[in-house]
Amino acid sequence: MILNLSTWQRMTLLTTVNNVKGDLRTVRKALKAIDVLELDATEREAVGLTEHPTGAVTWTDAAHRFELEVLDEVAAFLRQQVEAKSDWPVSADVIDLCEQLGIPEGEQ
Question: What is the pLDDT of residues 18-34, one digit of tens each?
Fold first, then answer.
C-alpha cells in the first residue's frame, strides 16, 4: 500500500504508534510502523522539523507530502490504531488519512 501523507499526518501517526503499549506481538508491529514513519535527516530538513528541549516537535512545511510504501500488515496495524484513537481534531487531514487507510465513513 502507498500512503501519501502530509507532515501533520505522518507526525501524528508516528506519535500515536510511539505511544502504543501491549504484548510483544503488538510492540513488534509498532516497531515496524515506526521504521516506516520516522523521518530521516533529509526529510527532517525538508520540512524544517525541530525537536525542542521540552519534547515538543515543530515543523515549518505542513503541506509537504510524503509517499510511503507500507506493507499490508503495517497498514492494518495503522488502521487499527487510527480507529482506536478517540481524540481526533475536526480536520480534512483526518478524513484524508481515514480514506487512505480504507476506514469506511461509518466506522470513524
Answer: 999 999 999 999 999 99
pTM of the model: 0.89
**Residue among 15, 18, 30 nearest 73 (CA):** 30
d(CA 44, CA 58): 10
* 88-97: long-range contacts, CB 8 A cutoff, minimum separation 24: 93/6, 93/8, 93/9, 93/12, 96/6, 96/9, 97/5, 97/9, 97/12, 97/13
User: Closest by alpha carbon to 1, among 93, 98, 100?
Assistant: 100
**How many CA atoms lie less than 13 Å away from 69 in the CB half-sphere?**
0
Provide the number of structural domains found in the chain.
1
Do the Cβ atoms of 24 and 98 come closer than 8 Å?
no
- For residue 63, give Cα distances in angstroms to 6, 36, 66, 77, 82: 6, 19, 10, 25, 21
**Smallest Cα–Cα separation from 16: which of 76, 84, 62, 108?**
84
